[in-house]
Inverse folding.
């Protein structure tokens, strides 16, 4: 079943999450129509390879054309129209930047896998529950309702101001008419009646002026209350969701809704400002004793300007945090002299601002960090915000060619901090601009979440651990001295984030049993871990008992192993992975001989092994574990082929494959058959001779097991067999079973 077919079978709450990340950048219609083709392409590799991305984009457009031909024959007018529009959009948007669509599709596929993994989990973790709080959703709806009501109130006040203007013009005309009469005419009865009518009109004008000012005051108060309470909370919640998404959590949405609210409020405030300007204009033409305009208008205008300043300052946000394109799952870790991207958005979308706001990027502006290391940004660090580059027309700017460069210290050399000191240093990338609109000049500043600067890719794992710990532990966007005294983290939340590392990076999260094993490894004992507090040192700095590496280095090596060598097996759920030796034996002891499971090595970094259960002639149960396979061996032989072809030579020199059933009872070929490479070809006999007179050799994973041995066995795989050993195998195996799987 394709991944997209699995997605379509999810519950509605998960489908709503899927809906959030499909838009005009990558329309869902294309995902649906080209599901199998899309899933068969390597979009992640293309996201870092422009030539490959160009070819994939061309092939994507060809696939869309083929779909167009098909629906044209079916005369599906609506689908024809949509596909033509989508094709034009894709070609226009990505023709000059094909790697961008590769990044987008790769992210969408990865997020689908994360949601599928979350849907298969029995319970949500505490962090994800907090992000989906029903109270938060209710507040979002209330904000949108109140913003709409404020916009309507401001428009209604416009009508009141227009009525006031018309009334004053009539008064002005009638008053000037009387003033133009001769003095003798002013004493007539009709004129006296007109004067009484004018006095009544003046009273009405005074009442309407007070009424308009009162309505303007109420609109300003409602905006003030909304900005101070619910809108501020919404923005803070969005920023927190962004933090969580950056460390592998659910993709954050809601920025378009916030943009709509900010824009409507800005439009309402500018509308109120124009109303106050109109009142000032009316004041210059008519005033009187007790006129409320000169008393109330200055205060109201000052309040409007104050709210506009605050609204604009809060609307300047980092839409996408700094990230190296080469490591899309590791945002906020930046390597010196390597380009990174970052995207800014102004949530107030006004046409007058298009291409009028120039944003400048700097690093560590007016900030003292925990070391003497200092950096500058190279590349294009000043760009104009515009509405043309974003699919949804938002007012944004994306810096794509920034590079951090470390400055030499005053002594002429770089700092000598240790590896942990470097990866615990936090830096800030700041952005500043100025908005000039309708006589207002507003200076805007914002900053990225703290970033870690590395000079060597070997520092990336520990740097990423720092990013995880920071964003898990605090919602403070600028605590650059955080690691001077890092707080402990709740283990239940940390385990949830660790599961996210697997779902976001290798497409499948961890189940409760796997998380329990990690909890035991971190705590050293099996107790309830819901309220357990784990220190930063225990997570990333202290070595595991009896080992030469930390917990995080061990886990990161496993992630790398999965990603590069056993990804399909992991996504299918056939790698139990995190299970202790003791638990392994409990699971296998009552199973059919030949039942095996796959687990990650606890003693070797980035190693995977398999253990199978066997039965001796006396009925006793025995267990055999092969020496862990690391990336060196797996680079030569695919792991699925190793499982297929693995042989043991027993005491009587009869080779056989002991692996029959994947735990609990899945036939081995049923589980791994689709991942086998092509069947091995015929292998020439040793007597046939080889090229240039050499006897041909063959690679095959083999172990020798003695019945009285209980030690872990080392496979002699990847070593050339001697002709004598090979001849023994040929006596018992057909040539098609023996593979040269290199």
């Amino acid at each position: 079943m394709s991944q997209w077919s699995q997605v379509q079978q999810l519950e509605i709450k998960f489908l709503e999450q899927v809906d959030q990340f499909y838009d005009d950048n990558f329309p869902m219609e294309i995902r649906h129509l080209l599901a199998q083709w899309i899933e068969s392409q390597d979009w992640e590799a293309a996201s870092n390879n422009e030539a490959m991305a160009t070819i994939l984009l061309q092939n994507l457009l060809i696939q869309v054309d083929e779909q167009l031909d098909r629906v044209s024959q079916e005369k599906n007018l609506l689908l024809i129209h949509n596909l033509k529009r989508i094709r034009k959009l894709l070609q226009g948007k990505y023709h000059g930047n094909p790697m961008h669509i590769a990044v987008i599709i790769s992210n969408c596929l990865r997020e689908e896998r994360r949601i599928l993994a979350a849907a298969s989990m029995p319970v949500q973790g505490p962090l994800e529950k907090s992000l989906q709080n029903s109270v938060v959703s209710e507040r979002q709806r209330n904000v949108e309702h109140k913003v709409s009501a404020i916009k309507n109130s401001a428009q209604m006040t416009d009508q009141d101001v227009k009525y006031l203007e018309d009334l004053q013009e009539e008064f002005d005309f009638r008053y000037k008419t009387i003033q133009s009469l001769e003095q003798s005419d002013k004493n007539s009865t009709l004129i006296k009646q007109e004067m009484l009518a004018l006095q009544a009109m003046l009273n009405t004008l005074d009442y309407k002026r007070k009424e308009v000012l009162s309505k303007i005051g109420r609109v300003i108060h409602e905006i003030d209350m909304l900005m101070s309470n619910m809108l501020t909370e919404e923005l803070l919640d969005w920023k927190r969701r962004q933090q969580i998404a950056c460390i592998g959590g659910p993709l954050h949405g809601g920025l378009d809704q916030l943009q709509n609210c900010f824009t409507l409020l800005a439009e309402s405030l500018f509308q109120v400002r124009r109303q106050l300007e109109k009142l000032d204009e009316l004041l210059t033409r008519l005033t009187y004793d007790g006129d409320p305009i000169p008393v109330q208008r200055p205060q109201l205008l000052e309040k409007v300007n104050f709210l506009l300043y605050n609204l604009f300052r809060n609307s300047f946000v980092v839409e996408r945090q700094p990230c190296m394109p080469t490591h899309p799952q590791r945002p906020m870790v930046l390597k010196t002299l390597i380009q990174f991207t970052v995207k800014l958005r102004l949530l107030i979308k006004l046409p007058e601002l298009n291409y009028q706001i120039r944003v400048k990027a700097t690093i560590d502006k007016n900030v003292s960090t925990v070391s003497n290391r200092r950096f500058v940004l190279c590349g294009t660090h000043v760009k104009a915000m515009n509405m043309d580059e974003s699919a949804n027309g938002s007012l944004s700017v994306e810096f794509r060619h920034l590079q951090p460069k470390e400055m030499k210290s005053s002594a002429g050399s770089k700092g000598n901090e240790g590896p942990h000191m470097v990866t615990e240093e936090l830096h800030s990338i700041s952005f500043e601009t100025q908005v000039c609109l309708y006589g207002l000049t507003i200076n805007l500043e914002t900053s990225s979440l703290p970033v870690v600067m590395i000079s060597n890719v070997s520092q990336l794992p520990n740097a990423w651990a720092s990013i995880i710990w920071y964003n898990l532990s605090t919602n403070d966007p600028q605590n650059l001295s955080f690691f001077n005294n890092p707080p402990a983290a709740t283990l239940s939340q940390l385990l949830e984030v660790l599961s996210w590392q697997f779902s976001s990076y290798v497409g499948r999260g961890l189940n409760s049993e796997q998380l329990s094993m990690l909890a035991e490894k971190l705590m050293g004992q099996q107790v309830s871990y819901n309220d357990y507090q784990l220190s930063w040192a225990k997570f990333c700095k202290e070595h595991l008992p009896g080992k030469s590496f930390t917990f995080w280095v061990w886990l990161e090596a496993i992630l790398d192993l999965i990603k590069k060598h056993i990804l399909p097996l992991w996504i299918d759920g056939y790698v139990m992975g995190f299970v202790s030796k003791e638990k392994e034996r409990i699971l296998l002891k009552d199973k059919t001989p030949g039942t095996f499971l796959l687990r990650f090595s606890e003693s070797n970094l980035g190693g995977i092994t398999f253990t199978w259960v066997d039965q001796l002639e006396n009925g006793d149960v025995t267990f055999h574990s092969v020496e862990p396979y690391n990336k060196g061996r797996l680079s030569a032989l695919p792991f699925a082929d190793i499982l297929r072809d693995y042989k043991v030579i027993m005491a009587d020199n009869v080779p056989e494959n002991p692996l029959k059933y994947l735990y609990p009872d899945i036939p081995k070929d049923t589980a791994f058959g689709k991942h086998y490479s092509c069947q091995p070809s015929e292998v020439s006999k040793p007597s046939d001779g080889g090229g240039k007179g050499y006897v041909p050799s063959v690679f095959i994973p083999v172990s020798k097991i003695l019945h009285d041995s209980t030690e872990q066995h080392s496979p002699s795989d990847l070593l050339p067999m001697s002709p004598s050993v090979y001849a023994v195998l040929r006596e018992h195996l057909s040539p098609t079973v023996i593979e040269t799987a290199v």
Observations:
- The mean pLDDT is 83.
- The first strand starts at residue 316 and ends at 323.
- The chain has four domains: 3-120, 140-313, 324-407+421-455, 495-675.
